[in-house]
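Sequence in, structure out. Go.
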Amino acid sequence: MNLTFHIVYVPGSVTCLLPFVSTLLRWSACRFRLVANGCAAGEVDLLQARCAADPRLELLVLPTNRPLTHHDAINYLQARCREEYFCFLDSDILAAGPFMDRIIPHLDN
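Output:
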């Protein structure tokens, strides 16, 4: 199963938290949509460069000049989601080993 997880970044978080994506890529076959929520241009550039380096990453910049609240950002992403499942992770999550075997059995719940 090939899931796409949305990971939302807010201003000031990209530099510190973007390296965690490498652990998610290493320990899964999932795709990740990196979401800039009101981030500065330099942070968007960092996200874009990271996405360009891996075909399982893509960038989505929310259409806003200032960060949306967390629930508004998630609602926006869910409304535009076209995948079978809507998945998201907080940007401060990292993987220390394979994790999808624990998630897949619960998808229909």
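Check: The chain has a mean pLDDT of 96. Residues 11 and 67 are 8 Å apart (CA to CA).
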